[in-house]
Amino acid sequence: MEKVGIAILGLGVVGGGTYEILVEHRQFYKKNHNIDFVVESVLERSRERAAALGIEESKIVSNIAEICSNPEVDIVVECIGGIEPAKSFVLAALKSGKSVVTSNKELFCKYSHELERVAKKNNCGLFFEASCVGGVPVIRALLDNLQGNKILSLTGIINGTTNYILTKMAEEGSSYLDVLKEAQSLGYAEADPTSDVEGFDAAYKLSILSSLSFHTKVPFTEIYREGITNIDAVDITYAKQLGYTAKLLAIGKNGENGIEVRVHPALIKTTHPLASVRDSYNAVYITGDSVEDVMLYGRGAGAKPTGSAIVGDIIYCATHPSHTYSTFKNTEKADSVTKFVKNFESEYYIRLAAEDKAGVLSKITALLGKHGISVAQVVQGEERAEGKAPLILITHLTKENNIKKAIAEVNATGIAEVSSFLRVVS
Ligand code: HSE
User: Fold this and answer.
1) Which of 57, 125, 179, 425 has the fewest CB atoms below 10 angstroms from its CB?
2) What does pTM read for this prediction?
């Protein structure tokens, strides 16, 4: 029976989950694949953490060189996260002829070109299923199963923390800060939640997924990014009344005018399949020209779900000896012919505090009309503040710049003030 030796860098949630799966399923994999996957080495500073997983002292190392020089190690699994030291460790492993499996979205998003170049040069595999959407097998779907398609768009709920917060806000009417505190006390949200709540985590993943989907590098820097920190529970309530659900969406489109990539809160119809993705669950809704619509749903984070993606890559690596690489132009920057659409088109939800008297609504709609914005729906809310009534408008499709200009002009009139606006994805 073939033996494949594994080294795990970092025994945090994902590294620990990976270790447990490999140990628990060792006999199962032997039976299925005729391969004995053995964890030969772990790079972990915390001896307690390693001991809690039952890892023998002799397997714990304190530097990457010990792993690179260990002939028993075939595959290195990187679960450290962030750029350094993860990048140096991955490059060292590849240079020493070890294949690498990584769950590191920031590293793969920013340096996939460099890592892949070194992997190719050393004839090593480089696998990254766990970098995006945890246990949901979206990378392999894009790399293999959907290759027959021109991918037209992908829309995802690809951050579990923000989806948990928005679900609680919608279902319990709580404020953003209250839910964030609760999520932190339950361990769902990090003590420093910036990467999740400001949309960085989703943008790293969108960069990888849209590069794979559109066959060209879509750099992180091209992605419009807005987090959920300014979402007001009032808008979630009004949206619900109007038949919409608020989600942090990652959107990638490949249209006639170029590639459009953005991460921001948005309203979707409650009848859309993505609206039913609750709590910390994730989903990616992909539209291809042949397959039409496909939705992949599941756990986007967590020890065993992400470990499942990593172990899937380990098995794939061990059973596919001639390595293949990414199916997009994996360069540092986007191809010079690739155009990115910045002034994108959307429908919009606008909440205003307006004077409640004759002629106000017509003045507002006239101003919007001046910018080519057509109103699809108007609702007047009940809760007045300082004599002003809340007015909610849903527009037809218009350009982002038009909305921003129109909002500035409405605010300048003094008859109404825009309290918030959200993009609506139909
Ligand atoms: N922090 C991420 C999330 C999981 O909340 O979805 C890892 O990417």
Assistant:
1) 57
2) 0.97
